[in-house]
Here is the input.
Amino acid sequence: MTIPAPIALLAELTHRCPLSCPYCSNPLEMVRKSTELDTGTWIDVFLQAADMGVLQLHLSGGEPASRRDLEDLTRAASNAGLYTNLITSGIGLTPRRLDALEAAGLDHVQLSLQGTNAELADRIGGYKGGFERKLAIARDIKERGLPLTLNAVMHRQNLDDLDRTIEMAVELGARRLEVACVQFHGWATKNRAALMPTREQTEAVKQTVAAAARRLSGILAFDFVPPDYHADYPKACMGGWGSAGLNVIPDGTVLPCHAAQSIPHLTFEKVQDRSLSDIWYKSPAFNAYRGTDWMPEPCRSCERKTIDFGGCRCQALAIAGDAAATDPVCVKSKDHDKVRQLLDDATAREENLIYRVNP
Amino acid sequence: MTLAFGRHDIPYLPRGVRIHHDRVRGQNVLLAPEKAIELDEIGLAILSRVDGDTTFDQIIASLAAAYDAPAERIEEDVQQFLTGLRARVYVMVRT
Ligand code: SF4
Ligand code: SF4
Here is the structure.
């Protein structure tokens, strides 16, 4: 197969974050501040990415505003022709910093929403006062006319608030709302029993999103990530492993997806040691699950194999014990009963949240 | 709400949405929040006329002249193309 050029780069600038969401997509082993890439190295990564054909740059974390050079990084990326998207909790941003980011050419802000009221949001984010500060910065974003997406991570404890979440997105002037049901990787796997949506919630969220998307067409666009374990077929892994996007973590390690380090037999290389292009096109880790040749049955002879690419490799490893297995979420997987079991266990119990820790 | 454009509506690309020449792939794309959409020749011809001053009618007339094609056919294509983008808020409208 010919390997396509990547379209998107997710730059996890830091793993530091004032919040401690129990579903954080950062790995359980986080990168410390002392080993974070410096400004110049990040800029070089952005230039390499632009030369490779990357169009979209997601400045993420942790909390990217925890990096004091965020404005410089944004300017360099913007000058390189990249579309710059800041993925933030809003904590650490100020009107002054927003002005500087605007002047640096920032294209878009994706603001996370932990809940629709201070009590819920601050409990989920593990940060008192966070909700009020977030609303204040959302108003500053709106005032400037910076394009805004609200990213609402949904789970058992806030799914019943979906209507209010949608209203808030409209009130805050967002053009887009991501209703992202928790994906069980990283910290979220520790919190399955506290976060797993119920069957009823899963049905309700699909209908609510579909109805709201029709009603608000042209005002608010929706992107919907449905709850995973309840589905018959798995989600496509980012358009296929190593096909559309890549992820650079704070210490320069390059991954095909944010959870890829959970696959122990793969070796991931660093931007300090090899060019981004070589890592994308030539490294064994990026080639491990590219295309369809690696697939086992039942995927190999399945008509959906170029739709979902056999699902998620990290989930296959976590649940089936084999990263090269069919994603066990799929009804055709021989390990599908394990997902059923996890689902039953998780929805039968109430557990306290286990918060992510800071590096 | 109906998203179809009226004759005097003025479509525009809101902040955060822009046409970009992708030098690596040698094509034009529409860049929008967390999205890149490939533009073919017709898409580019339409969007390069979406400047925030030109009305829907004027866009049709200009395309009909440039491509020497009947306005009704062009209108159908343009309506469909722009309505699709408007549904995702990649195109907005001034009346
Ligand atoms: S998910 Fe929460 S803790 Fe993790 S980076 Fe985002 S805001 Fe921070
Ligand atoms: S068998 Fe494989 S390719 Fe087919 S639907 Fe299931 S995961 Fe997807």
User: Anything to note?
Assistant: The CA atoms of residues 31 and 41 of chain B lie 16 Å apart.
